[in-house]
Amino acid sequence: MPYLKLHEGFNQLLHICREFHDMWPSVTFRILGRQVPDSDHVKTVICNFQATPNKGREYSQTSITAPLVMEGTVGFQEFLSLISAWSNGESGTLGDVVLECPDIHQVDFDQSVLEDGLYNPLLTDLPTFQSKYRFHRISGGGNDQDSDVETQVYELCRDLEQLPDEWMMEYLGVRVTPGVRPYLHMIFPICVGINTSYDKELRQCQVKLAYRRPMSKNDFWVRMSSGRWQASLPSYSFQDEQQADGWHCSSFEYPLPSDDDPDRVNVWVGRLPQSRSFEWSTTIAMEKPRTPVQVRQDFLRVWYDYAGQQIAKHAQRQEPGTRGKSGNVSEQLEILVSNVFSAMGFSVFFGGTILKTPGIDLVAFDSAESNVYVISVTVSNDLDKKLRTFLPALHDLETALHGWLIRPVMVSLESTKAFLHNDFVNAQQAGVVLLSEEDLEPLSLEYPDLDAFRKHLVREFDTLKMLTGNNTGTYVPIKL
């Protein structure tokens, strides 16, 4: 969506807020500013607001005086009055403080942003559902640094022995670029959530949809399938409607076909009049006996969910300019590969950027087949440079791995198209299997397919064996 002028963004926000005013009784905020000389006004430098369906205790307090940091929770109508004033370029009141309109010229207004796409963490927790929230978001920044506030922030960080970005996250809940510049961030959760259950005796799935006014059950549709999403799937309506604690709940029951015995059923929910794309989704896992192997493999997804991370993002190439936002991409890939081989039942020794093991990032022992996978991970396509450090490292470990069939692997987030033909030839001649972004696709699924990944890895080595064992002498693997 194109950038909007500040007053245009606020006007769009006011329209949505007035339409959905019953959805958010409270708004939580964190503000960084400074007192305007010879005035009772406060210059707004950084402001972070989150609307919430929870009716919280209303308060407003000054957490720090230099720099001036305020936090609290106000009623939704008081927040609307502030935005109405700001939309006209005027100062507004929040609690007992008069806040000047932020010095920001343009903003980005996003609708229906998935929770995983938020820039900043939530200021206050939301009721939990199996599905993830979507949000309206307005955000923007200014160019002019506030040197006075910046000096106060840096002096305080020095006293607290904190980095400025760490302090910003702890006290304001924002991730911002270096320097103290005007910044606006407001999010409004679309209060819709899905919970599901499965009755083994009746072989029946139940979907419960929770939502807040002004929405009603007639605004939604649901589609279900044991396979992938398709817009052509039959659409169903929700039945009945109950109310509790400001939320309304409707349900839909889906009997499994007699000839269908899936491991899981996928659920998609959307809003009318849009009928060909969904906004919320979850999965119903069928209650079947799980083997220790299945528990171990399923735990990979549980572990990343517990960390608030998405496996798919760690298994896919990121666009230039985005690599620093969620940590070091190389480290993330090293850890993912290590966790994947652990989930497949291998004994893994991890080195990587932590131990700084030269040329090799991890070694995975497959006791069942007496294979040992010696693995180097990279986020680039400089395969020739990697091989020059990888191959000597293999020689260094030859004696220590005596008795095991060594299977060298190089893993890259780059696409196959990013490599030259000679890259593959050189890797094959060295007896090394190269896995590119496309080879990691089974790990990018909502439920990572470890069996498919392992079979693909075995096939790659079978193919390599065929190529290097032909009679033409085209490929000659380096002896370890």
Molecular structure report:
Helices cover 27% and strands 31% of the residues. The chain is built from eleven helices and 22 strands. It has helices at 6-19, 76-87, 147-160, 164-172, 292-306, 311-314, 329-343, 352-355, 383-396, 421-429, 450-468; strands spanning 4-5, 26-35, 41-52, 59-64, 68-75, 92-94, 97-99, 106-114, 134-141, 183-190, 192-199, 204-211, 220-225, 239-244, 247-255, 264-271, 280-285, 347-350, 362-366, 371-378, 405-412, 433-435. The strands form four sheets. Strands 1, 2, 3, 4, 5, 6, 7, 8, 9 and 10 form a ten-stranded mixed β-sheet that branches. Helix 10 (421-429) links the parallel strand 21 and strand 22. Helix 1 (6-19) runs antiparallel to helix 2 (76-87).
How many domains in all? 3
- N-to-C terminal Cα separation, in Å? 55 Å
The count of DSSP E runs of length 2 or more, i.e. the number of strands, is 22
State the helix count.
11
Q: What's the main sheet like?
A: 10 strands, mixed
Q: Please mark out the parts with pLDDT under 50 across 5 or more consecutive residues, or reply none.
A: 320-327, 470-480
Summarize model confidence as the mean pLDDT: 89
Strand share of the residues?
25-35%
Using only C-alpha atoms, the radius of gyration works out to: 27 Å
Oligomer: single chain
The helical percent reads 25-40%
Taken from the alpha-carbon principal axes, the silhouette is: globular
- Structural class, from helix and strand content? alpha+beta
